[in-house]
Design goal:
Strand content: 25-35%
Strand order of the largest sheet: 1-11-12-14-15-23-20-19-17
Number of helices: 10
Number of strands: 41
Oligomer: single chain
Structural class: alpha+beta
CATH class of the largest domain: Alpha Beta
CATH architecture of the largest domain: Alpha-Beta Barrel
Distance between the termini: 60 Å
Helix content: 10-25%
Number of domains: 3
Length: 707
């Protein structure tokens, strides 16, 4: 029903219609405002200038800007569009020089709305814009059956290059989430392109392997954007009191959840999915023999595996699993014998797959695999119908992306998984997924612009289907696989995979990609369902723009990284991608002694983490939690980025700085004991604690025994 102002001759008719068809809570307020309710939400629209707000319990959640301005080449307003494709939404081009400050692009904004459509559980404004001819846009807000709000914005008719929404934001508001972001747990001030991005050697700082196009606000609401296209989130990065989201095309749709941060997180993870509980063995100690790109050519890799087997047999600490990534390039008889030996020792074998085929020299693919996939037309093509070839991320060859929309390719992928499981593997790394490039064509007609973000989620879905089918035939086997790339859109990788690894952290202490970066990365993922975080103990990438080669993992870094992994869901060695993995026995006896203590402590934590994981699947509250959820800690405290909670009663504060033997620990309110047995320490303050190289600072609430 249309409710308008200025229809004087039809006032009686309108009044009668409103009394019959419009919810009683909707009314036209003074000064050009329209207000009403959708469940627990109050909706308010202003006619001129056009704006809107959503509140709950008397507190504003979202409020449109209500006015327009320009910053850094883009226009801000409550609602607007560009007639041509937006430059700000072009995918990152890492081969090109950085762009200069962009010039302002033609953009139009919604200026006035003469009324409001509303009915049961829906409100819709159709404002005019300041474009020539006053093209209309549409903003619809509706109450979903699950109690969340849907928000859709776009053109009334015709096409557009992009659409955007702009919102007011108090400077006290913090933004958390967005998937695997490393900058910090508060992403206010960040300019984020939600685009799956490999670091494309040699610069790991560009990596964004598992984006989530949405966030949780410290003000108690969450937003999740629908679809697979790239989106741009300017989170008060251009102006301290405004944020803006844009996406290509003529419309965008998002879901709003609220009711406090816990309920907002639960609502978002119901949409994204929640990582399933892995088999118990997967959360134990895992040692991975990664291939050293510059060190394991020829027969060196096999000899390293043989040496590892000798150490595994004599190790005096429990080992749950052993991974050898180069299995496909090894003799089949050796692979079978190795798996048999591992199983005799009670160790679970873990193997490796990647989402593309290549004739490179990495040693992670069997001979002839590339030629087979090309000849059988199982890969994405170019517009000429020929295989789309791109440089392999590894040296020495070309690569082609497996077309997982093609039934024959899906069967081929399934058979590869069944083959490694039939060999006896209990798990595998499902690597890569970031390589879809402009110009690629897929069997089902999906454009590369959509498939780029969708691909890793499709990879996870197809892989899960193959694993589930195999497990139905082998009901006593429980398979574990984890991925690097992921996305939450039309599909969500979180629904299918068992865990994510953050993607080749650098072998250093750098806050952007080294050891300290794993804490905000892990915590940001957990808020939106991806709680299965498995870091590479020791770091993997030895590449940096300013330092082309980083030395192999050193003893101090290895030790501190292992300590940081103790109270995380997984405990997995995987380091030094150029030089080859360094194992615990490669270091001094003192380092090995500390390592064994950390193994014991991690194993003590496993029952707690698994109990909390089961609870997470029901409630959406992650078992690994940011400190600001503990109470008495603001969302902008810097220790949110270097500490975390395991459940409600255990605090972890690892040493993340090279050479440090003390650290400052922020204790939430309440009483705490170091290592569960120390003297009581009152919280709601920071304390300085000793942290020698063999010590990991951790605390439990007084009167509790979480371990």
């Amino acid at each position: 029903m249309w409710q308008g102002r200025g229809w004087q001759g039809l006032a009686t008719v309108i009044a009668i219609a409103i009394s019959i068809l419009v919810p009683a809570t909707a009314n036209a307020g003074e000064g050009g405002f329209t207000t009403g309710r959708l469940g627990p939400y109050q909706i308010r629209f202003s006619d001129s200038p056009f704006g809107f707000s959503i509140s709950r319990g008397g507190r504003y959640l979202l409020a449109g800007l209500g006015h327009s301005f320009e910053r850094n080449g883009v226009r801000y307003a409550t609602l607007g569009y560009t007639p041509q494709p937006a430059k700000e939404l072009e995918p990152p081009d890492l081969s090109a020089a950085p762009d200069e400050e962009p010039s302002t692009q033609t953009s139009y904004v919604a200026t006035r709305a003469n009324g409001m459509w509303f009915g049961p559980d829906v409100y819709e404004a159709r404002p005019r814009t300041d474009s020539p001819g006053g093209r209309r846009m549409r903003l619809t807000i509706w109450l979903r059956k699950d109690g969340t709000l849907g928000i859709r914005a776009g053109m009334m008719a015709g096409k557009a290059g992009s659409v955007y929404l702009g919102f007011r934001s108090p400077q006290s508001e913090a933004f958390h989430g967005f998937g695997g972001r490393r900058e910090g747990t508060d992403l206010r001030g960040s300019d984020i392109k939600s685009w799956v991005l490999d670091y494309r050697y040699p610069d790991p700082t560009t990596a964004y392997y598992s984006p989530v196009p949405g966030f949780i606000s410290s003000r108690g609401y969450g937003l999740l954007l629908k679809g697979d296209r790239i989106s741009r989130w300017r989170m008060a990065s251009d102006r301290p009191t405004a944020w803006r989201v844009s996406r290509p095309g003529g419309s965008m749709e998002m879901t709003l959840t609220s009711g406090g941060q816990a309920r907002a997180m639960a609502g978002i993870s119901r949409l994204t999915g929640r990582h399933r509980l892995p088999p118990a063995w997967a959360t134990g100690t895992v040692l991975s023999r990664a291939i050293g790109i510059a060190a394991d050519s020829g027969g060196k890799y096999q000899s390293r595996v043989e040496s590892d087997l000798e150490h595994l047999a004599s190790a005096d600490f429990p080992i749950s699993a052993y991974a050898f990534e180069g299995w496909q390039a090894l003799p089949g008889s050796f692979v079978k014998a190795t798996i048999r030996t591992l199983k005799e020792e009670g160790i679970h074998p873990v193997l490796y797959l990647r989402s593309f085929v290549s004739n490179d020299t990495a040693g992670t693919e069997g001979p002839g695999t590339f030629d087979q996939a090309i000849s059988r037309k199982l890969v994405a093509t170019g517009k000429d119908g020929k295989p789309f070839l791109l440089p392999s991320p590894f040296p020495g060859g070309q690569a082609a992306v497996i077309d997982l929309t093609k039934p024959a390719a899906v069967r081929w992928w399934r058979n590869r998984i069944w083959n490694l499981l039939d060999l006896g593997a209990d798990g595998f790394m499902n690597d890569f997924g970031e390589q879809v490039e402009a110009g690629m064509r897929f069997h089902d007609g999906t454009s590369a612009a959509l498939m780029h973000n969708r691909y890793p989620a499709l990879q996870a879905k197809v892989t899960r289907a193959a694993v589930d089918a195999w497990e139905r035939r082998h009901p006593k086997r429980h398979i574990f696989f984890f991925q690097r790339a992921g996305f939450t859109g039309s599909l969500s990788s979180v629904k299918w995979e068992s865990a994510q690894f953050p993607g080749d952290e650098t072998v250093d202490w750098g806050s952007d990609t080294g050891l300290p970066s794993i804490v905000p990365d892990m915590l940001n993922r957990a808020l939106t369902g991806a709680v299965g975080f498995t870091t590479d103990i020791g770091g993997y990438s030895q590449f940096r723009t300013e330092q082309p080669f980083i030395p192999p993992t050193g003893e101090e870094l290895f030790t501190r990284w292992a300590q940081a992994a103790v109270f995380t869901p997984f405990f997995r060695v995987h380091n030094s991608g150029l030089s080859g993995a360094r194992m615990p026995w490669d270091f001094s006896t003192d380092a090995q002694s500390t390592w064994k203590k950390m193994v014991v402590l991690h194993n003590r934590s496993r029952p707690l983490i698994r109990r909390l994981w089961k609870r997470f699947l029901k409630t959406g509250m992650p078992m690994i939690r940011p400190l600001y959820l503990a109470g008495g800690v603001g969302p902008k405290n810097p220790h949110n980025d270097d500490e975390w909670m395991v459940g409600h009663d255990l605090l972890v504060a690892p040493v993340l700085e090279e050479g440090a033997v003390t650290r400052e620990v922020l204790l939430p309110s309440g009483c705490w004991r170091r290592s569960g047995t120390g003297p009581p320490v009152e919280g709601a303050r920071t304390v300085e604690v000793g942290a020698a190289l063999d010590e990991l600072p951790w605390f439990t609430r007084c009167g509790t025994s979480p371990l």
